[in-house]
Every structure is written in structure tokens, then in C-alpha cells.
Design brief:
Elements lengths: L13 H27 L4 H8 L2 H34 L5 H8 L1 H4 L2 H12 L6 H4 L10 H26 L2 H9 L4 H29 L3 H7 L9 H10 L3 H34 L1
Helix pairs in contact: 1-13, 3-8, 3-10, 6-8, 6-11, 8-10, 8-11, 9-10, 10-13, 12-13
């Protein structure tokens, strides 16, 4: 009687690797997140609703989500331009510019916040030239947007750059040979290839901005109802020993972020599925 042997897996030790991955994910991500909801569950529904709908909290939601969204959109456009220049053109100092893109990654967020504040303050190198035109950056919502844009740029550039490098130039040459102008070539040939990577970079920049603290807390001025971000409000709750209130706000941020990221991932899947079909 022949004994059927188990077909070897493509990935050796897949069961063990999967178990380790799930264990690591549970310890690092799932258990801490579950703790947020467990602590929030100690509140009654009325207490929870009062905590997350306080006018001060709602103002922080508007600023955090609004500035994060606008900053990610700015980075999607500017990051694409920076990646395009770094891939398609050669110029003196190109390696230096390429290294500067990663500066927000390496720079401590507190240092970034202090630097941006000193530059954009009324007497700063940049702020002194904007003040006569009535443009105030530091200690305003605009300052929050500047900080979130600064820390999110590398995510878009480093996501789009490899796709541009691997893109076949013959497709663009063929489009030009068929009579397409530059705008048509970009819109119908280049952009569809870049769209998944661009959307991924936007998602990463948006997610990073939602949880940013160090670079924003200095330049924002932390004025309630005006320039106070949600992460700072959570820290304030913790300092007041209001742990349940802090976790309630954190739970709202977590659910809202997850829903937004899920929608973006579904858009990526839809775009990829449509082009495969």
C-alpha cells in the first residue's frame, strides 16, 4: 500500500513562521489595542459619549484629521514631483537632495518641532518675511499643517521612487509615437502605473500625521479649541489621571483611522483588480 507523502511547502517551516508572526503581532499590536477598549469599557455609555463629544475634543478632531488629510494630499503631489526629479534627471547635488528626503525620518520629532518653530516664528528666518503680509505660521493651525507636511514627505517619495525607477520608458515612447502629448502620456500611461504606489504613500503619510506629537506640540502653541491636537489632549488626560477619558478619545481615533485606512486599501484592491481583469 502506497503511502502518500505530504507535498513540501514552498516556504519551509510555514506553520512555525505563521505561528510566530501571529504571536508577535498579538503581543505588539493586538493586545495593547485591546487594552484601550477594555479600559474604555469601564465607562458608562453616557460618560463615554460625554468624553468624546466635548467641544474641546471635537475641535481637536477637526484640526487633527483636517490637517493630516491636507498635509497628506500636499505630500502626494509634492512627493511625486520630488521622486520624478530624483529618478528622471541628473544634476549636481542629486545625492545630497536624495539624502535630505530622509531627514524627517532620522530627525527626532522634538528637534523638528523646535526647528520649525524657530524658523516660522515672528522673528524667525521665514516668519519675519511672512508677517508683513499677515501670514502667521507658528502657533496657528497653519503651523500644524507645516509640521505634518514636513514629517510625511519621505513616505510618498520613497514609495513612488522605486516604481518610477522600474517603469519601462518604452511605454512613454510608444505613446509619444502614437501622437500623445505630454499631458496625455502622463495621464493615461504614467499615472495608472504610479497610482497604487502613490495611494500607498498617501496612506502612510496620513497615518503618520494622525499620530504625530513631537513635531507639532511646539509649533502649534497648544491653545484649546484652536491649535490643540488630539494626541496632546490624550496626554493631558493622562496627566490628570483620567485614564478612561484618555482611552475613550484614543479609541475614537483608532476606529476612525482604521476605517479610513480600510477604505483606502479597498480602493487599492479595486484599482488593482480592475486592471488585472
Amino acid at each position: 500500500m502506497a503511502v502518500a507523502l505530504k507535498k513540501p511547502s514552498i516556504l519551509p517551516g510555514f506553520g512555525l513562521s505563521l505561528g510566530f508572526a501571529l504571536l508577535y503581532l498579538s503581543l505588539i499590536v493586538l493586545i495593547p489595542l485591546a487594552g484601550i477598549f477594555l479600559k474604555t469599557a469601564t465607562l458608562t455609555w453616557e460618560q463615554f459619549w460625554a468624553a468624546i463629544t466635548d467641544p474641546r475634543v471635537l475641535a481637536s478632531y477637526r484640526l487633527t484629521f483636517g490637517a493630516s488629510l491636507v498635509g497628506a494630499l500636499i505630500n502626494a503631489v509634492c512627493g511625486l514631483l520630488v521622486a520624478w526629479v530624483l529618478v528622471r534627471y541628473s544634476f549636481p547635488g542629486k545625492q545630497l537632495v536624495d539624502a535630505l528626503v530622509d531627514l524627517p525620518f532620522a530627525l527626532p520629532t522634538a528637534v523638528a518641532g523646535i526647528t520649525l518653530t524657530s524658523l516660522c516664528a515672528s522673528e524667525g528666518w521665514i516668519g519675519r518675511y511672512l508677517e508683513p503680509f499677515g501670514v502667521k505660521v507658528a502657533f496657528t493651525p497653519l503651523g500644524v499643517l507645516v509640521a505634518l507636511t514636513f514629517i510625511g514627505l519621505p513616505f510618498v517619495v520613497r514609495t513612488v521612487q522605486p516604481v518610477l525607477q522600474d517603469m519601462d520608458a518604452e511605454m512613454e515612447e510608444a505613446a509619444a509615437a502614437l501622437g500623445a502629448d505630454r499631458r496625455q502620456t502622463f495621464g493615461w500611461v504614467i499615472l495608472p502605473e504610479l497610482w497604487p504606489a502613490l495611494l500607498t504613500g498617501f496612506t502612510l503619510a496620513f497615518a503618520r500625521a494622525l499620530g504625530e506629537y513631537g513635531s507639532v506640540v511646539f509649533i502649534s502653541g497648544n491653545m484649546p479649541m484652536r491649535t490643540e491636537i488630539t494626541t496632546l489632549l490624550i496626554i493631558t488626560k493622562l496627566e490628570q489621571y483620567d485614564y478612561a477619558g484618555a482611552t475613550a478619545i484614543a479609541a475614537v481615533m483608532l476606529v476612525a483611522s482604521f476605517v479610513l485606512l480600510l477604505v483606502i486599501n479597498l480602493l487599492q484592491w479595486w484599482h488593482r483588480h480592475r486592471h488585472e481583469v
